[in-house]
């Protein structure tokens, strides 16, 4: 049994009714407020796999994907080790909730994409029939379309990069191709890890990635309890603190957890 946090329903601000598709005008509007693809790819090229941990690389790839693909609400990376799935990196609660829903059900587009190393696109969630339990969860959380891209890895590990959107019709051909590029960078990070490490060491890195996520979840729980905010807002607080301090998100979260457990309750 994997030790992963429970997911909770969150409120999503939907700009469109379910029967209204994501239009070119919507896409242009989102592009105006997002990082352009060339800048994002340039940032990907700056990632030094030999100097950064697997978790940090996957988090960076996910964040850049979210920032540069118009209409994408959240991104996550699913890793399946010896048949046990987990989310190694994610950009927000929506992605984690829908990943967890699929793990609990034992099926869904992210698991199918990982197992078959292929692409699964849901253009309109309300019309999808392949995974009825997943689509019901997705609609409840405000997701109207999704894209999961399997990444080729050495056994006993496989994985997928998942993209979730709040409107239907977000993933046109250009968006899918750009998403494949980000998935390719995630695959490179994992391939580099397996190239220089034994299978056991790679599994350890993945375990560390999951542990990093667990620490972040603990810190979010502390913020939710202390500030009476939502898990999504707590994640944003941690992200802003990470950026302001120029420290890894995991280190900020660990400091908060350590502080909460110290005798005087002060963060170190």
Question: What is the fold's blueprint, element by element?
Answer:
Blueprint: H1 24-32, H2 37-45, H3 54-68, E1 72-81, E2 84-90, H4 93-105, H5 109-116, E3 119-122, H6 132-141, E4 145-151, E5 157-165, H7 173-196, H8 199-227, H9 231-245, H10 249-261
Antiparallel strand pairs: 1-2, 1-5, 3-4, 4-5
Helix pairs in contact: 2-3, 3-7, 4-6, 8-9, 8-10, 9-10
Description of the molecule:
The protein is of the alpha+beta class. It folds into two domains: 24-196, GAF domain (Beta-Lactamase); 213-261, Orthogonal Bundle (Arc Repressor Mutant, subunit A). The protein has ten helices and five strands, in the order αααββααβαββαααα. The protein has helices at residues 24-32, 37-45, 54-68, 93-105, 109-116, 132-141, 173-196, 199-227, 231-245, 249-261; strands spanning 72-81, 84-90, 119-122, 145-151, 157-165. Strands 2-1-5-4-3 form a five-stranded antiparallel β-sheet, with helices on both faces. Strand 1 and strand 2 form a beta hairpin. Helix 2 (37-45) packs antiparallel against helix 3. The longest helix has 29 residues, at 199-227. The radius of gyration is 18 Å and the shape is globular. It starts with 23 loop residues before the first helix and ends in a 7-residue tail after the last helix. The relative contact order is 0.14. Residues 1-19 have low confidence and may be disordered.
